[in-house]
Fold these 3 entries.
Entry 1:
Amino acid sequence: MKNQPVHQGRLKTPFYSRLSQLDTVNEWHEWKGYSSANALYCEDMEYFAIRNATAVFDLTPMTKYRIAGPDALDYLNRLVTRDMAKIRPGRVAYAVWCDDQGQVIDDGTIFHLREGEYRLCSQERHFAWLQAAAIGFDVTLTHETEDVAALAVQGPTSFSVLNTMGIEGLEELKPFGLTHCEFEGSDLMVSRTGFTADLGYELWIDPDKAEALWDALFEAGKLFGIRAIGTDALELARIEAGFLAAHMEFLPADETVRTGRSRSPLELGLDWLVDFKKPNFNGRRALAEEKRNGSTWRLVKLDIEGNKPAHHSYIFGKEKGNKGEIGFITSAAWSPVCKQNIALGTVRTPYGKPGSSVWVEIYYQREMHWNRKMAQATVVDKPFWFPPRRGATPPGPY
Amino acid sequence: MTERYDAIVVGAGHNGLVCSALLGKAGKNVLVLEANEQVGGAAVTREFADGYSVSACAHLLYQLQPEVRKELELAPTLSCEDMATIALAENGKHVRLAGVSVDGVSDEDAASYRRFRKRMTGFANLLRKYLVKAPPRLGTRDMKDLITLGQLGFDIRRLGKNEMREFLRLIGMNIHDELNERFANPLMKGAISLDAVLGSHLGPRSPNTVMTYLYRLAGNAGRVGMPEGGMGSVCNELAHAARVAGATIRTHMPVKRIIVENGRVTGVETVEGERFDSYTVISSADPKRTVMELVGARHVETGFARRIHHLRSQGNAAKLHLALDGLPMIEGLPKKDFAERLVIAPDEHYVERAFNPAKYGESSPNPVVEMTFPSFRDESFAPTGKHVLSAVVQYAPYALKGGWNDEARDTFYKAVIRTIAKYAPDIEQRITASELLTPADIEREFHITGGHWHHGELTLDQFLFVRPVSGAAQYRMPLDGLYLCGAGTHPGGGVSGAAGRNAARAILRREKAA
């Protein structure tokens, strides 16, 4: 491992020059050492760019590790719960990784770049854990967050934008696929991935070419309603998609202190990601036991009556006469595109079976005074937003 | 067609033999595979020069547990029982420690020592009770774990308010501070310091050296014996017991790997390529060698592999064997006292200073020495009239800067001889042959990672509930079919058989539960 400089202060991504030009509200926050915009001009307009046109989000601060070497596949198969042998070169896998107790450390995407070479992306940093996991394996780990500039290009017109820009081969690119092309002499990797459950892509390029890529993208997107967005709009799309976020739906197991504050993949509705056919992976023993004995928690997607978002609410089994709460909301929003009051939450089993009803205690403020409302909620199975265009190959020319 | 056994024990060290004998007695078909030609692991007697033999690694018997003796009907003959410790003084005014009494010090010191030993023996007895039990797991709801844990708490409380407070104060403390609170005589403090740090990478000022001292006392109320025919005879007796119990012992069969198939252990493969099948493989090798080399880190989970990887197990004690054409002269030492345990540790600071260079990867220029003359009472060690000196010498760090090459070995050898010669001036003329085993040699010859005779430092963070590592303290490893039974598990090193017995019981108990 080569020594890397330790940065002082907050970093600017290679797209900062472009983002700051578009920025009118000056609302930024820190994301793993980088400045990241909450919004650039209007959260609502930015959100509608995701759902109705094309939104561009700077995801350079997302943690990226390169995993290479003869044992890369075996290494990943021990690290994550799903079977990585099924992920061929040119494919991307959503994956979750656990500690020995079967508790989720983080989730993320693993890009099979070329034979035996992978990129793992996640919200949190995990170098220490990845290194520990490498004991006994012939793999090289590289932290490459700074070495790769990345943009999410998401929305119904995103295919048309990239097509107009001259990127070829996207007609054939299925969800969770990736392709390489050339952009001004550099490798540009395009993956059909994203955090919005809509048609969308992510672009990965050398930081030196970041500004040129941005300019080409916005030039091509002029007629397709392209807009830069901040994290607030993306967060709303994330909840509509029913995706998990670390520190929201779960706490990384290595950050929890109290027992019972972490979650297993089975408790997060990720059973489909846990492949017990693999003889060994981190957490396998504990998860097998949990499967036999039953889980404590269940992640629920809730469709709540009314229009008051159920931020931070307790969840109850009945409307009245409850002895105690059965869980709580972890993410909530009014979904403009679904016209639904939606939320993600965590409840104790056996509560929360799909189709069942629970009650949510919502507090909201009207002219300083607080109101309380018990709202009925239905546990739903499917993501709130999952349009057919997300999976259509070739994508439609909106 | 490969041979199938109920259990395979890797390594015929004393713990492996105890474990296989007990499993054999329970009706199991057991195979023991030993890399060396002799059984016994580091508890062997072997010839180091023509006509001279010696206990090659462990040379004193502190703690062969009564439970082990009873269950396997062992009765090792001792050539010396309850040896006294003589702290050598250059001027011949040696201090003699035997049981609770000490000679050659002021009356005050003698009285203090009596009180000190009494209290320490009380604490050691508490500890002893737990040497022969599987340590309880923390954070489980298993009845047995909870009972053992409750019992431990109760036993500590039962010491009485003052003694409990004293126990809790002392258990993490260093021996240097405790000695200086109680005694004035430097020789006495030196000798007790040496007892507290012998075989470890610790100095008298290192934390928890009171605990390591208690550990030595716990074995057999502090009694030290020397088996007739050396440590090898104890292991031969153990091997005999194992064979009688039906175990098959095959020597000169180094194990290359423990085979893992579909997430569980299914057997072992020897270096020669021979394969033996069993769904239960018990390793008496150290935890690092077992998990990282024989099994392979990839077959266990990351957290466990990381803990094993970080186990502190670098030895710091070397073994010196001298063939002598006669007993050396030691001023003020009556001839009969050559039967005792002689230590060179003139004061507690000397011991700490000897340890200082070891912290930075250098051997001690003024080492501490524990020596015995096994041939004095037992003629099987040397030709008539000749003698053998067997000494544990510290400090010789495993990870010596520049490695243990001939020059480094020679430097340390000379330092030890120079040190002994201060007390026995004619020692050099008496030497006809010699052998120095550094931790690197011990690693190579006895297959112990780091050459540490406890298979892992004996410190509070690697003790009891967390030995070898947390989550694996009950002999069963987090890999189906894999067990440990060596000194790396609770309670630790020394020829006690406790780990081997505890492991056998854990295996049989589990089988009953299944």
Note: The longest helix of chain A spans residues 210-221.
Entry 2:
Amino acid sequence: MNINLTIIGQAIAFAIFVIFCMKYVWPPITAALAERKKKIAEGLDAADRAERDLQLAKEKAAADMRQSKEEAAAIIEQANKRANQIIDEAKDQAREEAERVKASAQAEIEQEANRAKEALRAQVAVLAVAGAEKILEASIDEQAHAQLVEKLAAEL
Amino acid sequence: MASESGTLTSSEYISHHLTNLTFGKLPAGTTRYDGSVVGEGGTWTFAHGTEAADMGFWAINVDTMFWSIALGLMFVWMFQKVAKSVTDGVPGNTQNFVESIIEFIDENVKSIFHHKNDLIAPLSLTIFVWIFLMNAMDLVPVDWIPFVASEMGISYMKVVPTTDVNATLGMALSVFGLIIYYSVKEKGVGGFLAELSLQPLGKWMLPFNLFLELVGLFAKPVSLALRLFGNMYAGEMIFILIALMPFWIQWILSVPWAIFHILVITLQAFIFMVLTIVYMAMAHDHH
């Protein structure tokens, strides 16, 4: 167990290894560790943010869905209303049309009746004159009696 | 194990395993292991037996230096390779391994040392991994490397650098130097001296305080060095003793002891590191 120069040799070797370690080993490795720590923190942060975004998107989708359902319901309701309205309108029109047709038909009938009356009246006059001629068996001045006959016909 | 004399007694085997390969200068007039006497001017040679003691301070334990530097290079090579190709994306296996060690060290440093100093963390990393690797040489069966070395003509080979008190003391004294340096740097010479002399009992007990604090100060590197050395030396000694038993029974003892030693080598490296961080923190703290 002799104390000798080895002490100094060891001290020198020790110093060299420590300095080497301090210059070329420790800084790059700890820097990489710190960098990785930062990366992981960022990654976790991003994951959190993504989750939050997803939540928001889900909520927004649900809201959109609800809104569009409401809109669809409104549209359907409106369409139903409009259909009823159209049907009512059509019914009204049909009724009007029917009435109009009926009215015109009635007017025509009346006209026909009048015309028939007119024709009848004219013939009645002739008939009356002829009848009177026959009854009187005499020739009557047509001219003199025409006025009378016409008056009679008008009274018919 | 094998030596010039052929067969070895148990004590020779043990002392052989506990002798470093020392290179130094034998002074003139020393009687060598083979009976010859060193001539005028001394001679530079590898020590045999107890000759290392005659060489005094100016000798070097070649095996300690070789293994510690080789393991240290292994450490910086591996870590630097990772550091060069480091990615903040998905790490590979080696990077993962290195990162887990670095994070472990970083956590320890941050929990103990609260000042700004870029040296402390790399210092702790080096201490932990390097001492761990040196200690781990303990788990290589005690005869393997010395046997290969003796086949290559190297008669002594102690492969666990931390069982050499020079290695542990070298590191502990480096740490001690840093303690002094940072104490002076953070508090100034006056502040440091005041800290050594004016507490715990106030200025009227200055000599007593100084004595107490100086003992405490010098106990730091000595305890740091001797704790690691003692633990590893004792562990190695037990491996050597186990190796003296018949080969068919050795594993019954050596396997449990080796498994237990996995804990010891890690723990000792960890203790050395934590105490270094604590001492550094104390050097930075103002009392």
Note: Residues 6-155 of chain A form one domain.
Entry 3:
Amino acid sequence: MTMKRLQLQRWSSSVLSPRARTGGRLQQHLYYNLRRQSTISPALQAENEPLFEEQSLDTPTHVPQSSHFKYLLPSPPVEAARESAKLAALHARLYLPSRLPLETLARSLVDASADSNPNFNNEALASLGHDLLSHYTSEHLVCTYPRLPLTVIFAATYAYVGPKTLSAMAKEWGVEMAAVPGGEVDPGLLQFKRVLPGTDVNAEPVTGTERPNEHRKSWRKSMSSRVVYDNEFGDPVRASGDSAAPESQNTQGVTAEHASATFVRAVMGAIYLHAGRPAAKRFFEQHFLSRHLNMSDLFNFSQPARDLSRLCARENFEPPVAKIISETGRKSRHPVFVVGIFSGQDKLGEGAGASLLEARSRAAVAALKGWYLYSPLNVRVPSAMEEEGAAPWKPVHVDLGEVIV
Amino acid sequence: MRPSLRLLNLEVSSLQGSRTLYVCSVCRQEARPRPLVARQFLRNASNATPITERVRRKIWGTDNPPGLKDPYGGEGVLERKFKKDQPARQGEESENLDQATEEAQAESEADLAAAEAYEPATSWEGLPRVGHLGRWSDLPPSETDGYESFMLKKKVTKKGQLSLAAHQAAVEISLMHTLNMPLTKVCDVVEHDKSVFKMLWKCKIQPGANGQWSQAVVYPSKEAEKALVYIFEQIGGHPEPALAEETAEGAEEAVEESKWEDLVSEVNDKNIPFFGYADVRDKGFLSLPLDDPATKFAFLKRFSQLSGHYLPDPVIHSLATVGQAVEYVHSALNPKPKKLADYLANSQGLNNLPNVKVFAKKQMPMDRDEELGRKKVIEAELRSRGLIE
């Protein structure tokens, strides 16, 4: 398992300053026109300092604006953030740090489909937040469960920071959605352009990925190739250079799930930018890792006995042997067999079933889960070393991973 | 016809026609000439003795009865009018013209004589004043006509100035208590000189345990105490104390220019109440009790004079301390809004809360639509169907 390479420092600076040149996914933002009322100040380019002073907030510009003028804007003006009770309530409800101003929170509620100007939508914040979330989640998973199979890691990552989870979180936070985005809309509402009713959002498969031979549908996609070519959830993702996709998104609109997920990611990025890394990590632990995820439910073995024998062979254990530990009612309508799988003198797992085969299969699954779900004590993640005065790093144990059958 | 008149008629007809010939009363009425209708009232018109005289003679039993010749007050209104209209025709009655008519005739003759000696005036000198009818509104205003209001023309509105008025009143009433002078005499001096006011302003009030006003004043210095005691002895003793009599000696010697300067400075000072002082130095006077009715009346009178605010009787009855009086005037100046929306919009606690928004008007469903952004869509749809312009 290889983690995606993250370059946080460079990316955060690009969010701070629209003039900073960055490559990759933020390339597309560079050629947008600047609007005057941006919450970010181009003059502030403190790249090594994650916190910057909100000087623009100290000198608020009182521009007399008629309600008619507001209708012309694609998203609410920056001054409206201070007027909104919803926004202040959301800020207080999430217990966000006071250094995160309401204006930025309002900006994180504006989707790119509502306002295409990158100085006013949450796309840059969401990019940063997305990478922070996947970084923290993946290092947490890999360090806590060093032997997890890659498919389980993909599933667990999706369960922690996937779009469905994020939209559920936005709902739990009490974020309401605007019907139609516009300048007159309350800035405390999530604003995005909705897809037309009846549109099948999953009609066409994702195209334009970086995977070679993409057009060959029948070719097998290996797990290892998914690490390289696909996103952190193992799903195909569009290449960053492909600029046609966001344009079509802006015209056709996005789903509420997508917009909610983008908002949550943008909040994460905003916290990182305004309040710093410790606050971002705290927010991640309190809102994401605190969600209970039963890791053992994510496994799906088709042939557990075979996998177990391969595993034992790889790890130089003795070949597994299934033995009946106890049984009852063999001749009855509901017999119960308890089967244990032993490798030499060690019992790897135990399972109960209505038949001997079922019980053996369950015992093998239990043995495999016991192996894969190993978790060391006193887990430390690599990002813990970013804090001041951290203890010296001891390398964590990362296993080879799943057995390849 | 009334019986009394018929009685008179009978007498008059006896003079004109013979008694032997009988004429019925209706015919007698119609046969009589018209002007004689009025003659029935002319009791004094004939030489014959009127019936009243005859009745009197009969009563007294003599031809010269005592008393008035005509006990019924002389001629009536109609008789006089009739006589004036036809003086020539009633030649026989001209001798009976009374004294007033003769005098009037004499006056008109004198007027005619003056008209002959009339000379038109060439200048206004010596001419009598014409057009003055002797009414009070035509008279020039006298000293007593001027009105100066007891209270300030412009009411004091700031809280600091209200406190200043209450403080000054409290110090003055306490001084009068100390000097055993009549308390309400302080109202004779509407506004003190600036130096006196400054001394009063510097005085502190420390109410005693039993709420005595007489020992409450704490003077800033001995000199100030002496000066204030002297001044208020003057105010309390003089029957008619002049305004700012403490500067009276100096003002007499002053030359014209200094008088002008004083006037200017006075005018300037009058524009600013309390000489520009904003607030009191200590708040001790607020707890002074108003138990004694005389003290309460004197204080409230002086306070009303200085602040320009009336206090209604029920309020006066319920006041217990000086502070309550100041509080009442202050609350009367800033009444609680009648509408709850105004009250909520002005409340500082709500305005400081970021997650509370107070709307000035009622929020309708259309406002909700606008907040959600669908109002423009609804309006566009309505417009496309021609339902709104």
Note: Residues 159-238+273-333 of chain B form one domain.
